[in-house]
TrEMBL record:
Domain HTH deoR-type: 3-58
Protein name in UniProt: Lactose phosphotransferase system repressor
Keywords, in A-Z order: Repressor, Transcription, Transcription regulation
Superkingdom, taxonomy of origin: Bacteria
Function of the molecule: Repressor of the lactose catabolism operon. Galactose-6-phosphate is the inducer.
UniProt GO MF annotations: DNA-binding transcription factor activity
PANTHER family assigned: GLYCEROL-3-PHOSPHATE REGULON REPRESSOR, HTH-TYPE TRANSCRIPTIONAL REGULATOR SRLR-RELATED
Amino acid sequence: MYPSERHASIVARARAEGRVEVAGLARDLDVATETIRRDLTILERRGNLRRVHGGAVPVERLGLEPSVREREVVNTAAKDAIAAAALAAIGDVATIVLDGGTTTARLAAMLPTDREITVVTHALPIASIVAVRPNVRLHLAGGHVRGRTLVAVGPWATQALSRIKADVVILGANGISREQGVTTPDVAEAEVKAALAAAARRVVVLADHSKIGRDELITVLPCEEIDTLITDTEADAELISEIEAAGVDVVRAPPTGTHAPPGR
């Protein structure tokens, strides 16, 4: 059986049964469990399946995009490493725009307390982290707040952001690929993310390995408009090379407590 045929079989079985297990697929398709795990990773990046412990479920079963609480407990070590690398990458900036998301929230918690810094955000979790800090001047863009992601969207948010030009913006991503750039499943959130990107001189995207190569419904901005992508060391090397070919500087953040490879 060719890989494409195996992939089609896995997706069809997941949709019919609601879940597939690595061990069962390896047995029934007569391949190694490592092969099945690679297949599931590929299918997740394509948006066909979502990996769960021991197997995968079809994206249709998951319904809407995960909530902040659900995402908070996924890939925590990678997110910690990415946030630490982002802090080092932005340097001594005076003004920073922070997108919503669980990785950007980790960065917000790491921001320095020994110097003044201006933070612009449309995300309630980010605002709650930095609002109590005496060294932070917070500007909160308002609008309709999405309950699933706790960020403001709509014309109030985009108009407020259109008048800003900060040193750097830190964007989260539901998916990023060479072909589609940064993507997200919600139209309103895509619009405000694009406004965030336009509100700064430098664009830095944070995305753990599960987001690399994944395409969601709406493109926020192409790879050519990204200055730096910070991901973790588990990101697929071939997919990263494709993004680098678009002119993006990619930082692979090592686990916290270790040192980055030379030149990164």
